[in-house]
């Protein structure tokens, strides 16, 4: 029997206990009737080019913060995020597919990462409460989103004062790693769509070989 990870949303000073069911790219597999394969997310070679620790340093993720891993799948980033924010912080791994979230529940328990909350998300929103996040994080997720401008716009109320949104996604060019060129969303498109949704680019990193790395904050500061 699986033991679900428990955590708490605090809304209007009331702590609501959630029995968590897990939830992206992984959602596409589930919609198409394909089985979730954790190896496609967790392959050892990924560590070389994904540079997780450098990403964590670049987004300035700190102890006690709250971060949402949107389309987080197997929790490839969620687990190291959980270590970075520590027991006083929280990581919400949001996905529209159940199998990867169940996988993350199991691996998080095995690693004693009890500050990971798995969230079964809707197609048009991550299902998180307002004013609950310091950072929104997307990795290789944008081309799975419908109506991206509206999706990005609806994320702004989720942030606390000083919050930001991070996009790490595939460069739209022929590469030896990553999906077909046609499945990628160009960096310029992401920047323009974010602008339309009320975000401004405040930071760009270039150390990832196959992905662009963009950081945004709301134009109207919270």
What are the salient characteristics of this protein?
Rossmann fold, single chain, two-stranded antiparallel sheet, 9 strands, 222 residues, 27% helix, seven-stranded mixed β-sheet, alpha/beta, disordered N terminus
Describe the structure.
It is a single chain. By secondary structure, this protein is an alpha/beta fold. It has a single domain (6-32, 48-218), classed as 3-Layer(aba) Sandwich (Rossmann fold). The protein has 8 helices and 9 strands. It has helices spanning 25-31, 39-42, 46-50, 52-58, 78-85, 98-110, 148-153, 187-196, and strands at 6-11, 14-19, 66-70, 90-95, 116-120, 133-139, 159-170, 199-205, 211-218. A 7-stranded mixed beta sheet has the order 5-4-3-6-7-9-8, with helices on both faces. A hairpin with a 5-residue loop joins strand 8 (199-205) and strand 9 (211-218).
Main β-sheet description = 7 strands, mixed
- Which CATH class applies here? Alpha Beta
| Oligomer type | single chain
Question: What order do the helices and strands follow?
Answer: EEHHHHEHEHEEHEHEE
CATH superfamily descriptor: Vaccinia Virus protein VP39
Integer count of domains: 1
CATH architecture: 3-Layer(aba) Sandwich
Quick structural gist:
This protein has 222 residues and is an alpha/beta fold.
Reconstruct the topology from this structure.
Blueprint: E1 6-11, E2 14-19, H1 25-31, H2 39-42, H3 46-50, H4 52-58, E3 66-70, H5 78-85, E4 90-95, H6 98-110, E5 116-120, E6 133-139, H7 148-153, E7 159-170, H8 187-196, E8 199-205, E9 211-218
Parallel strand pairs: 3-4, 3-6, 4-5, 6-7
Antiparallel strand pairs: 1-2, 7-9, 8-9
């Amino acid at each position: 029997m699986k033991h679900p990870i428990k955590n708490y949303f605090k809304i209007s000073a009331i702590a609501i206990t959630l029995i968590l069911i897990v939830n992206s790219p992984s959602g596409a597999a589930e919609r198409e009737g394909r089985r979730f394969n954790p190896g496609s997310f967790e392959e050892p070679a990924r560590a070389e080019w994904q540079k997780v620790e450098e990403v964590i340093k670049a987004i300035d993720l700190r102890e006690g913060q709250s971060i949402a891993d949107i389309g987080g799948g197997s929790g490839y980033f969620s687990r190291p995020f959980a270590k970075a924010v520590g027991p006083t912080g929280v990581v919400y791994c949001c996905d529209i597919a159940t199998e990867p979230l169940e996988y993350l529940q199991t691996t998080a328990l095995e690693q004693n990462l009890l500050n990971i909350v798995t969230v079964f998300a809707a197609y048009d929103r991550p299902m998180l409460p307002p004013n609950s996040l310091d950072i929104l994080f997307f990795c290789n997720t944008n081309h799975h989103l419908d109506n991206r401008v509206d999706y990005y716009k609806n994320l702004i109320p989720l942030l606390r004062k000083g919050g930001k949104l991070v996009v790490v996604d595939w460069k739209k060019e022929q590469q030896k790693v990553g999906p077909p060129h046609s499945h990628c969303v160009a960096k310029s498109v992401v920047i323009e769509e974010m602008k339309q949704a009320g975000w401004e680019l405040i930071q760009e990193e270039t150390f990832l070989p196959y992905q662009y790395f963009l950081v945004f904050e709301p134009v109207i500061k919270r």
